[in-house]
Write a structure and sequence with these properties.
This protein has five helices and no strands. It is an all-alpha fold. α1 runs parallel beside α4, α3 packs antiparallel against α4 and α4 packs antiparallel against α5. The N and C termini lie far apart (about 45 Å). The model has no long low-confidence stretch (mean pLDDT about 90).
């Protein structure tokens, strides 16, 4: 595995599987933390709902530190090129998982704050619910603000 071409193939495979598994795990995290967001305590108010975001952040950070420690133990002090690549791709995937979950939870809380109704874990609101023009403008402005 010392040739440059072999390493490039390995890197592409790692990136491919890393992105695929990160998205699967990210959607699972959205489902699990979203279910927690739907509990009676957290759905009381938008502020309570937003408390799930830092909880998810700290839980994800703790899991990331744990898996990083495990990878360092497995790799040992003299990590080779493949192990360094593995560590880098896994860290990227872990960041993707956190980004997906935290952004979804934040947007759910923001929608709850602006619209007054907490959408389901899948993002669906009760049938027949119509939002006012100011609510739509606020949501649009928040979305635009996040882009910038």
């Amino acid at each position: 595995m010392d040739s440059e071409e072999d390493m490039e193939v390995v890197e592409i495979n790692m990136k491919c599987w890393g992105v695929l598994l990160a998205h699967m795990t990210g959607f699972a995290a959205i489902n699990s933390w979203g279910t927690i967001q739907q509990t009676d305590y957290f759905r009381q108010t938008p502020a309570h709902c937003m408390l799930v975001v830092p909880l998810a952040l700290f839980a994800n950070l703790a899991l990331q530190r744990t898996t990083d420690t495990i990878r360092r133990i497995v790799s040992g002090e003299d990590a080779n090129k493949l192990e360094e690549m593995w560590d880098e791709e896994v860290e990227e995937a872990e960041n993707d998982v956190s980004g997906l979950a935290l952004s979804w939870l934040s947007s759910q809380s923001l929608r709850y704050y602006i619209g007054g109704t907490l959408a389901s874990t899948e993002g669906e609101e009760p049938e027949g619910l119509l939002h006012s023009t100011p609510e739509c403008v606020h949501l649009f402005m928040c979305g635009f603000g996040f882009i910038i």
